[in-house]
Amino acid sequence: MTLFKLLLPALAFSVSVFAAENTADNFGSRSAEENGVISKLNADGCTVWSSKTFPVKEGEIHTGTLMLDILERTPGAAASIRLLSLNEDKLIVDMKAEPSALYQTLFSCGTFEFERSAKALPGVKYMRLEAVFAGNPVTFRVRNAEILPQPPEKTPAGVYTPKAPAPDRASVLKSLGKVSPATAEVVRRNGRPIVLLDGRETILKSYKGSIDYKQLADAGINLIQTFNAGVTLFWDKMTWDMAALQPDGSFDFSRLENELLYIHNAAPEARVLINVNVDVGEDFFRNNPDSIFRNEKGEPGVRQFCAFAGFGVPGPNPKKNRHWAVSYASEEYQQYVCRGLRELTKFLKQSPAGKIVAGFGLNGGHDDQFLQWEYSAGRGQADYSPASLRAYRKYLKQKYRTDDALRRAWGDPSVTLENAPMFRESEWKSAAHWSDTRSNPDRRIADGRDFITDSIAAMNRRFAWTLKEGMERPVIVGTYYSSPLWGQTGRSSLKQLSQDNGIDLVFQVSAYSAMRKLGGVGASANFAIAAAHAAGLVYMQEMDHRTPRSHITAGWSRESLGYPRSFDEFRDQIYRDAGAVLASGGDGFYYFDMFDSWYNDPRALNAIRATCRAADWSVQHRDALPRTQAALILDERERLLNR
Question: 197 CB contacts (<8 Å, ≥6 apart)?
Answer without folding.
Answer: 182, 183, 184, 204, 222, 223, 271, 358
